[in-house]
Amino acid sequence: MTSDADTMPLEDYLAQGGKLTTPENAPPRYRGELLRLMATFVDSELAGAAGFADIINQGPGIKERIAASRIVLEKLDHAERVLAVMGEFGADISRYANHHPWAERVARDSDLGAARHGADMRLAVLHYPLQGWLDAVLMNVLMGQAVVIQIEEFAGLSYQPLAEIFRAILPRERRHTELGEEGLRKLLEDAGNRPQIAAALAYWRPRVAASFGRGSSAHFETQRKFGLRHTGNAELAAAWERQVGKLLHAIGMA
Known about the structure:
- By secondary structure, the chain is an all-alpha fold.
- It contains 9 helices and no strands.
- The protein is globular.
- It starts with a helix and ends with a helix.
């Protein structure tokens, strides 16, 4: 008996929800797109963990430092899981963790937009430096919302082993966002923090929004045909804005 994958073009099979399970079944263009997606995720997790690690000891208490440490640990674990899949596709992962200066940042007043910067594939927002605990908490809240939206998208992609990893780490990333929101609410208990939080919001909100990118429609169409994306950048960014708006309204910062 032949399968649907044997009787129809691969793009049609994938566009209709078909799944691939091994690198051997993936054609070159599909492999390239999938590796690009994985590299962006891994590099972003490594860069995010490196930046947040420097903030841990600025936490105002033990509970906050434990939460920050947990976020760093789990982001590194997520990177390792996806990196293992990259290795199955032939990527050289033996020295990956030390291949780029993950903690390196640009000047605070830089404006990178959505453009890549440097040699790694991290999202542009992860090139900006954190300035203290309050700034880090606010950034974690905004970026956490974006990460959850992106991983919800990736959890349905057509390479099944990778989709399963994203489904497994999604609850953890949601918890990272919850920890950030708990920290933000605690900071808001001191009315004196509100001006600083407002300033951090004004700084990070457009930079996180830019992380969704504005890729070409042709590139998105290729990803859609391969079952690697189902929702466009503009729609994902709009979903993020709605989530952020609800949160800011709930905490009285709208």
